[in-house]
Amino acid sequence: MSAINPHRLSVAPMMDWSDRHCRYFLRQICRNCLLYTEMVTTGAILRGRDPQRFLDFSDEELPLALQLGGDDPADLARCARIAEEWGYTEINLNVGCPSDRVQSGRFGACLMRVPEQVAEMVAAMRAATRLPVTVKHRVGVDELDSYEDMARFVERVSAAGCNTFIVHARKAWLQGLSPAENRTVPPLRHTEVYQLKADFPQLNIELNGGVTSIDEVEAHLAHVDGVMLGRAAYHDPWILAGADARVFDRPAAAPLTRRRVIEAMQPYAEKVLQIPHGSLHAVTRHMLGLFHGQPGTRAWKRLLSTRVHQVGAGPALLEEAMLALPREVLEQPALSLPK
């Protein structure tokens, strides 16, 4: 078999969601896709009280990219070296987040205005580590939103040594729209991402934004090198269940079922409860969407949302919650999903 390219499908970095427990859970559903951390600022790693909280992960989460937020080349280079020491697969630079907090730190989507500075940052990271350095950006920002503007950005940053660009196919409005609105209000511009791949065939171009199913992933892969799923994969994680077979041509040795996923999470939850300040809720909050749209999903969510906070709640709660679900849903093989 040929080597796996995890960039064919990835799950986006999502603030407050893409923590290590979420990533471990998603890895039980899709073995080959690339996972991302939440965005971590260089300050949190270099000057924070508890950088381990942001950096720690288990080997089962690999392949895993660390997404960095920052604007200082020297700080980013130091973080790149740390990422390599910790064993990450690659490093991603955030040039797409439009939040006020990120703007006040002079990084995120506002950096699309200064491609020379982004190139300097990428070059510094490339010089500091053997890991791949990638960039996630928007199709445009404010009035700087023509295809030509984006192409110039990619051309300059790629010359500094970045070979992979993950493009959120909506522009960012830095004033007037909230981060949530920036994910939905600006229209999708998928064809411009396709054009970017056509104009830069030597680069790895990945599409992000508005993708909600593996059917759509396969359609986009006819035009780009990879596709990134975002909140759709969080709210309905089972959409990833057919990806190993359909996107990577690597079906699991045994049929994947939701029951198998839950059974894999039980010993993991037990380990989490054994660490200081570990909680069952920290794990199960990411599992609420596992039965999205299926019979029994309300009972599943209710049990995990309410009973999880009771004194003595443990992994056995997952077993109890499964009893509220129809057996045919629990044991539906992933490969039976419609193609």
Automatic annotation (TrEMBL):
Pfam families: Dus. FMN binds at residues 13-15, 67, 136, 168, 208-210, 230-231. Gene3D superfamilies: 1.20.120.1460, Aldolase class I. One of its GO terms (molecular function) is tRNA-dihydrouridine20 synthase activity. InterPro entries: Aldolase_TIM, DUS-like_FMN-bd, DUS_fam, DusA, tRNA_hU_synthase_CS. It comes from the Bacteria. The record marks 94, 183, 298 as: Interacts with tRNA. Residues 11-318 form the DUS-like FMN-binding domain. Keywords: Flavoprotein, FMN, NADP, Oxidoreductase, RNA-binding, tRNA processing, tRNA-binding. PROSITE patterns: UPF0034. It catalyses: 5,6-dihydrouridine(20) in tRNA + NAD(+) = uridine(20) in tRNA + NADH + H(+); 5,6-dihydrouridine(20a) in tRNA + NAD(+) = uridine(20a) in tRNA + NADH + H(+); 5,6-dihydrouridine(20) in tRNA + NADP(+) = uridine(20) in tRNA + NADPH + H(+); 5,6-dihydrouridine(20a) in tRNA + NADP(+) = uridine(20a) in tRNA + NADPH + H(+). The active site is at residue 97. Its cofactor is FMN. Its EC number is 1.3.1.91. Belongs to the dus family. Belongs to the Dus family. DusA subfamily. Catalyzes the synthesis of 5,6-dihydrouridine (D), a modified base found in the D-loop of most tRNAs, via the reduction of the C5-C6 double bond in target uridines. Specifically modifies U20 and U20a in tRNAs. PANTHER family: FMN-LINKED OXIDOREDUCTASES SUPERFAMILY PROTEIN. This is tRNA-dihydrouridine(20/20a) synthase. It comes from Thermithiobacillus plumbiphilus. The gene is dusA.
